């Protein structure tokens, strides 16, 4: 690799997430499924005796061969100027694909895509598409729309289109009229949204079912509105069902009408028994099914001659029914919901029989039997345990044995907070469980945190990425653009049918992962370390009454070894350490929060030199290493023993979110950042502070540059490089104005980011560690700055000595994490789950589109090191001459907390943004008191 980074390119090469066609505010999601994705966006066709599925992502279309389970073709939107303009013109709310179909024009197969903003796009299926290929598009014109802005929600066939207006006050049914240069949609039916309960259609899309409130319910609701302020508009006693046929030219009037159908699913007074969550109608119009939040399914047999009905109740689900579908022959009913269990009801016999398959990976939000083949069932799953992102998974099941024929999903990622999905991402939130409530609020106060839980690359295969996700790890292949495997490292309790089990279950979450190599007898073994948290719902006298929440968190550190069996990609647990940093002081429940995990910076893979550091929020540090190696390392049943070999005790008087540590190149020093100070610790006696470096603002992150041995430090106002040999800061850049772009106030959030930028009191970047990385081959430094207002990000490139900014590149979306991939380039992932590569070898990036380079660097000015306020303080009083014994247990030494030391006043520095150097800690206290 060259010493210059002038050839660095930034490319989007992989990733993406399954397309979600609807935009709803998070407070609108009740127990109702809003997903009708499978019926329109996903399409199937047969060619040359092979079956194919077209699956839309937010950044591409993928064509899968069902028979071979392989992706046959990928059409990336950013590889064509027309597709890029249509689908990638907004970073946050994508121009969603509402419907797709296969059509033939002049003996050429095209994919017809209908978008939410009123365009029809024709993408060639059998021809190569390059950046300059002209893609034909048609505009959609809405007639009879009364001047309102209309958005398409569903396209049932060539005749019928479903719509809603911008403020979601009306539901529209319209006819599609094709013309040479445009497509016109004539609105035929308008239904006020406050009267509409739900709508659905038959498997062949020939019948449209609309369920409205009955007139008697509407009258009662108006009468009781004043007297009952909390009256729920989601519960009903009776409904009216209207059935339209989509084959007729004028769809204005229904062909069948069934009024005042009673809703009486249970004797329970719970409102869940009256909340309709899903519906469907059979192809032959003989049956209609309605699902409820209580889990009951109301099966209604329809008599078309006299409009009479016969009702049966199907009871198996114990939570919200989110998906319902009849098969083509109307002899079976498929249902799914919050229990993650697919149930199929046999309706062909006199008595209804039910069967079900074991739990799937996620909540079943949509079921469809593709009309091109009756031996498949398509299922859409959502991983609802992740409340910070929209994780969808597409499954195609073989109807004969219900085994998976195809499974497709993008990279599964966890954001650190739910800021994006609550405030800016226009996509669906997880559907609610009727019996299990989860708070959507973040655990920390960093509401505008847009970073993800940091991923890592496989050491032996850098193209394999590991994403921590809920209680497992999503293994993603960058080259194949596929999720390879979901590994559940922390197995949750299997949810059964019993309601109490379903309600009370708490699953652990993996917060951090890091991997490393250990070489033994000239054989390299890959290890993984995970930090796992588990909330405890303790509502007894042992609960901490001083906190707002009764959820105390326990932490577990686990060490895993990759299986030596090449046929399995499994991780085998080696050592499990419960409460690695001890419990909170005077607490019966709840562990000390672990802030960071750091693997020692060493080129040696010997187990003697391989150390793992963990830090906590009270300034404590623990160093872990291998204590014992099994005699037969090839035997996966024998475990390596990891344990504690050194520590710095915690200080109860200090609370910090940014407690990072690194080792010097010669491993003689441990450097720790606390607030605005960088402490130099003796590596043998870590409780001995040799000296500290006083900076002018809080340290956000720091890394060791292996090329020159310098420490790269990011503070709240800039980037610095510190020379350990010269004991001085040698270079720096003032980036305060750039860092301000990454901050946003709560006032701006509540007004949809329409106001001018208002800063929070004091800049804090909790996870800037994930946005700065160093090239270990030449020492080049990369830094990401996200611009909240412009919804873009900038990647800055510095040389190894931080003398100059070589270049900067812009990206059209926020970047959520960036890491060196242990090979020859950087990997990053943005908020739209798209994965990119930053590389200095453009020839390696044929898959991606190089992002334009910007050449003006006037915004950033180097600091003059002579004017930088730093001071070295020797601390001989704190040296502990007592020999530190090796510790191999997991208890935290707590006796140091009762002693008062200068750490007590460190939090005061967090609110001091002055560049004035203070002589002593006590002088600072006096000035603040004045």
From TrEMBL:
One of its GO terms (biological process) is positive regulation of transcription by RNA polymerase I. It is found in: Nucleus, Nucleolus. The keyword Repeat applies. InterPro entries: WD40/YVTN_repeat-like_dom_sf, WD40_repeat_dom_sf, WD40_rpt, WDR75. The keyword Membrane does not apply. It comes from the Eukaryota. Gene3D superfamilies: YVTN repeat-like/Quinoprotein amine dehydrogenase. Transmembrane segments: none annotated. This is Uncharacterized protein. One of its GO terms (cellular component) is small-subunit processome. GO terms for molecular function: RNA binding. Keywords: Nucleus, Repeat, Ribosome biogenesis, rRNA processing, Transcription, WD repeat. WD repeats lie at residues 314-355.
């Amino acid at each position: 690799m060259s010493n210059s980074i002038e050839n660095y390119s930034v490319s989007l090469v992989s990733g993406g997430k399954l397309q979600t066609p609807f935009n709803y505010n998070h407070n609108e999601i009740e127990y109702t499924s809003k997903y009708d994705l499978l019926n329109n966006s996903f399409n199937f066709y047969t060619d040359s005796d092979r079956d194919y599925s077209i699956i839309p992502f937010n950044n591409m279309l993928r064509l899968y061969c069902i028979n071979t389970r392989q992706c046959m073709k990928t059409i990336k939107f950013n590889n064509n100027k027309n597709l890029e303009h249509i689908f990638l013109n907004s970073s946050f709310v994508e121009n969603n694909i509402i419907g797709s179909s296969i059509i033939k024009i002049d003996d050429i197969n095209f994919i017809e895509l209908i978008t939410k903003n009123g365009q029809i796009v024709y993408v060639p299926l059998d021809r190569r598409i390059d950046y300059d290929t002209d893609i034909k598009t048609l505009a959609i014109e809405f007639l009879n729309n009364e001047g309102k802005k209309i958005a398409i929600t569903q396209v049932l066939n060539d005749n019928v289109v479903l719509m809603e207006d911008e403020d979601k006050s009306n539901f529209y049914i319209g006819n599609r009229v094709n013309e040479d240069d445009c497509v016109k949609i004539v609105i035929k039916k308008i239904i006020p949204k406050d009267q509409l309960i739900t709508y659905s259609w038959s498997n062949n899309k020939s019948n449209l079912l609309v369920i409205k409130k009955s007139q008697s319910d509407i009258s009662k609701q108006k009468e009781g509105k004043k007297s009952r302020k909390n009256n729920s508009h989601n519960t009903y006693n009776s409904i009216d069902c209207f059935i339209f046929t989509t084959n007729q030219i004028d769809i204005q009037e229904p062909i069948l009408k069934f009024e005042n159908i009673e809703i009486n699913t249970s004797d329970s007074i719970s409102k869940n028994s009256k909340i309709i969550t899903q519906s469907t109608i059979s192809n032959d119009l003989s049956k209609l099914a309605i699902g409820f939040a209580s889990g009951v399914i109301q099966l209604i047999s329809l008599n078309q001659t006299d409009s009479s009905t016969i009702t049966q109740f199907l009871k198996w689900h114990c939570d919200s029914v989110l998906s319902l579908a009849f098969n083509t022959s109307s002899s079976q009913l498929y249902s799914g919901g919050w229990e993650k269990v697919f149930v199929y009801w046999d309706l062909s016999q006199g008595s209804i029989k039910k069967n079900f398959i074991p739990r799937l990976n996620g909540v079943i939000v949509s079921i469809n039997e593709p009309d091109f083949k009756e031996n498949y069932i398509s299922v859409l799953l959502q991983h609802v345990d992740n409340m910070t992102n929209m994780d969808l998974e597409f499954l195609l099941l073989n109807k004969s044995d219900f085994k998976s024929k195809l499974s497709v999903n993008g990279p599964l990622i966890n954001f650190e907070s739910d800021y994006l999905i609550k405030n800016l991402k226009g996509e669906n939130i997880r559907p609610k469980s009727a019996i299990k409530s989860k708070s959507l609020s973040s655990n920390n106060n960093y509401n505008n945190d847009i970073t993800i839980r940091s991923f890592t690359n496989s050491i032996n295969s850098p193209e394999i990425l590991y994403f921590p996700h809920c209680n497992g790890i999503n293994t993603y292949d960058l080259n194949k653009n596929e999720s390879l495997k979901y590994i559940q490292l922390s197995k949750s309790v299997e949810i059964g049918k019993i309601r109490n089990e379903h309600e009370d279950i708490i699953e652990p979450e993996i917060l951090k992962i890091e991997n490393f190599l250990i070489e033994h007898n000239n054989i390299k073994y890959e290890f993984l370390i995970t930090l796992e948290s588990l909330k405890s719902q303790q509502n007894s006298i042992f609960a901490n009454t001083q906190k707002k929440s009764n959820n105390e968190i326990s932490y577990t550190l686990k060490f895993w070894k990759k299986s030596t069996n090449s046929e399995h990609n499994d991780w085998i647990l080696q050592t499990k350490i419960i409460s690695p940093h001890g419990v909170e002081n005077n607490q019966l429940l709840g562990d000390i929060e672990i802030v960071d995990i750091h693997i020692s910076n060493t080129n040696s893979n010997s187990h003697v030199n391989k150390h793992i550091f963990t830090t906590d929020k009270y300034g404590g540090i623990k160093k872990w290493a291998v204590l014992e190696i099994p005699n037969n390392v090839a035997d996966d049943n024998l475990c390596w023993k990891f344990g504690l070999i050194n520590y710095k005790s915690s200080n109860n008087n200090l609370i910090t979110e940014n407690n990072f540590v690194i080792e010097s190149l010669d491993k003689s020093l441990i450097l720790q950042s606390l607030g605005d100070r960088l402490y130099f610790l003796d590596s043998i006696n870590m409780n001995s502070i040799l000296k500290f470096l006083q900076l002018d603002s809080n340290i956000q992150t720091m890394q060791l540059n292996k090329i020159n041995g310098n420490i790269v430090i990011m503070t709240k106002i800039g980037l610095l490089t510190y020379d350990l040999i010269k004991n001085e800061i040698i270079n720096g850049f003032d980036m305060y104005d750039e860092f301000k772009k990454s901050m946003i106030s709560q006032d701006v959030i509540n007004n949809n980011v329409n106001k001018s930028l208002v800063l929070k009191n004091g800049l804090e970047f909790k996870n800037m560690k994930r946005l700065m990385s160093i090239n270990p081959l030449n020492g080049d430094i990369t830094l990401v700055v996200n611009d909240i207002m412009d919804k873009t990000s900038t990647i800055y490139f510095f040389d190894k000595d931080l003398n100059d900014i070589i270049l900067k590149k812009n990206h059209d979306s926020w970047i959520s994490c960036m890491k060196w991939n242990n090979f020859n380039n950087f990997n990053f992932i943005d908020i739209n789950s798209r994965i990119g590569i930053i590389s200095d070898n453009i020839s390696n990036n044929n898959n991606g589109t190089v992002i334009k380079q910007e050449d003006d660097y006037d915004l950033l000015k180097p600091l003059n090191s002579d004017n930088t306020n730093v001071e070295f303080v020797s601390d001989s009083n704190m040296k502990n001459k007592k020999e530190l014994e090796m510790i191999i247990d997991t208890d935290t030494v707590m006796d140091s907390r009762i002693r008062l030391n200068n750490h007590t006043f460190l939090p005061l520095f967090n609110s001091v943004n002055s560049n004035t150097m203070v002589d002593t800690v006590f002088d600072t206290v006096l000035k603040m008191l004045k």
